[in-house]
Amino acid sequence: MTRPHRPGAPQPPEPGAAETMAWCHEVLDASPDGVVLVDEETITFVNPRLVELSGRPREELVGRPLEDLVPESLRARHEELRHAYRRSPRTRGMGEGLPLRLRRADGSWLPVEVALAPLTVSGRPMTLATVRDVSARQAGDAERARLAQLLDLVPDSVVVVDLGSATIQHVNRAASALLGYPEDELVGMETARLLPTGHEEPDREPGASHPPLLTDGRRLHSVRLQARDGGVVDCEVHATMVDGPSGEPLLVNVVRDIGERLSLERRLRESEESLRTAFEQAPVGIAITRMAPSGAGTVVRANEALTTMLGYPAHGLEGTDPGDLRPVEDADGPEAMHRQVFTGELHGRTVTRRYLRPDGSSVWADVRATPMDVQADGDVLYLVHLVDVTRRFDAEVSARKQAQVTQCVADVASAALERRPEAVVIERIAVGAREVLEADTAAVLLSEGEGPRRRWGASVGALAEPLRAALEAGGDEVVAALAPPTAVAFDAPPPGSPESLTRAVGPMVLAPFGRVGSPPSGVVVACRAPGAVPFSDEDVERLARLATQTQVALHLGRARADQQRLALLEERQRIARELHDTVIQDVIGVGMQISSEIDAEVDTRRQERDLEWVARLEEATRNLRRAVFELRGSTRRASTHSDVTDLLAEASRMLAHFPSVTFSGPVDRLPPTVADDLVAVLREALANVARHAGATRTAVTVEVADGILTLTVEDDGVGVAGRPRIGYGLGYIEQRARRHGGDLTLGPGPAAGTRLVWTCPVHEEDAGH
């Protein structure tokens, strides 16, 4: 074998042929790359490294075609290249040819690079091929390519800088777009070229010069970079130190363009300044409040218009609880008060609220609240607008009160002309006085002849009983104090009033009703609870007008009724007496007798038949009463008062005592269907008392309040537990409650006996028909 000789290299001694061959084998076996010697197309020699790369023993390789080391899919192409090389042999360096693959014994393959050199051995041309495994290098190249691809997907710019040379080693596509340089131009560029000319870095002292993108130790900092076109880019940089492939220090800079953000922040500052100016100089009241989920709140800020409107000094509202600005009587409780002041329940709509000034006066405002932000602790910030509408509200209230007075007078006149019972008419006067004056209680006290005594005409409201007690327990001085010659208001009950009245009643207003000796006459009284707002002069004037005009309407109704009564008195009395004392009472008696025997029946069919007969008798009774009133020349139905009273008189025969009865509210204004069911239920309840209770006292209460009719029947008998069994008629009573949306409750009385409570809703649109 002939070895090539490098000029200047030491010349080995001239050995014999055997020694030369051994020396060549030793050199080739020590090569870190695989070596194969090919004679035309046959392998004549391989070194241990090639044996390792191919996974085949040397004996299996020597003498085999070279194509055995090439994957089958590439053998045809490789054979063409080998023939071409033999026609024009030359020395070819590593990696100059096409990418090649070495086939292993297990069928797998390795990516390799091959260097070729032509040789002449013993006069025969041969080719020496050096094979190098490049799988690790290709894997590294692929990993770097994937990394570069991933960096290109990052929306922020990435610039990798060699700290030793202060040069850029790698950039992603976003960095190239940010700075305007091609990627290959940025790689190798010194970072000092990115320092803006005539600009200072935000984090540097004025006049200091320092190359950018070399700052470590602060994970986030600001920097200005000069782009290729000369523009300056404001950036935010996140820098991290890493070790390079050779251990060199590299700084990975993640660069983000914050120019738009800085511009936005500048505009926001300008906008905030404008909003602050508009907030402070706004002509309407504006506040920012902080409200907790529990309902507790705080005024964070209030403008000058709001503090002036509410009577506070500058910044005097800040830190206060919004609930303290509302009068206590305008809220049900602390939580409800907070919910109605400066809260989310107002957002999206405008409501009118009353607020209290430090001097005790009040102001009305239209309020609109809009949520601004939800804090980390769950509190909500609200922007609240308040517009002073006190004058408008006072005018509206005055007009509404005058309209209420007019409507009350019209209702009283209508009831009087329709010949409604005088008790009903008087009650309407009390209801009207309470509504017009927004009082807790109103009552009408009527004169008894020429003396100073007063009798109870009508009362509505929670304070009716203290008034009644004062009238019954007080002497002539108290009665005289409650009958002034002109309308007058008191901040508390008049001097000399009983202690019970002083404790229970606060501000009062009284107005004379009619003239003494010309009945009906007396006084109209309205009162509020202790500590409430006193009545105003306008309230006194309204009550005086109400008392005067309703008394005139009542007298007019009486005069008209007297004229009709004089013409029909004799005939009406005869017919009414005959029907009431004979026919109607007999029918009622028969109905109650059948009703009392229903529970004793064990046959369900007979019970149903008896109930049907009772219903027919009730209908016959209503028809007879309707005929009586038609003969009297009236178009109205019998009053509920008289229906109940007649029923109690008839029931007293079975009970062996006369039940007591109490009426409250507009009982005679019940819809006909409700009134009929009331009488039917009362009849069945009294029959149950007569059959089961063994009572010596029965009390009946009929009350209409807040749209609910309540019938209560109490006895002092054996009670529910002492009865042999519950009557069949209870289902009948409950059925009549259910069809109106009402309810039935049966249980022990307050002391003993049984208490039955039957309730039924009364729709206002049906009342009075």
What does the model show?
By secondary structure, the protein is of the alpha+beta class. 40% of the residues lie in helices and 24% in strands. It contains 20 helices and 25 strands. A five-stranded antiparallel beta sheet has the order 2-1-5-4-3. Strands 7-6-10-9-8 form a five-stranded antiparallel beta sheet. Helix 16 crosses helix 17 and helix 16 crosses helix 19. The longest helix is centred in the C-terminal third of the chain and has 62 residues, at 537-598. The termini are far apart. Mean pLDDT is 78; it is low at 1-10, 203-208, 332-341, 632-637 and 765-769.
Element layout with pairings:
Blueprint: H1 17-29, E1 34-39, E2 42-46, H2 48-54, H3 58-61, H4 75-87, E3 100-103, E4 109-121, E5 124-133, H5 135-153, E6 157-162, E7 167-171, H6 173-179, H7 183-186, E8 221-226, E9 232-243, E10 249-257, H8 259-281, E11 285-291, E12 297-302, H9 304-309, H10 334-339, E13 351-356, E14 362-374, E15 380-388, H11 390-417, H12 422-437, E16 441-447, E17 454-461, H13 464-473, H14 476-481, E18 488-490, H15 499-504, E19 508-515, E20 518-527, H16 537-598, H17 604-631, H18 640-655, E21 660-664, H19 672-693, E22 698-705, E23 708-715, H20 729-738, E24 743-748, E25 754-761
Parallel strand pairs: 21-22
Antiparallel strand pairs: 1-2, 1-5, 3-4, 4-5, 6-7, 6-10, 8-9, 9-10, 11-12, 11-15, 13-14, 14-15, 16-17, 16-20, 18-19, 19-20, 22-23, 23-25, 24-25
Helix pairs in contact: 11-12, 11-16, 12-16, 16-17, 16-19, 18-19, 19-20
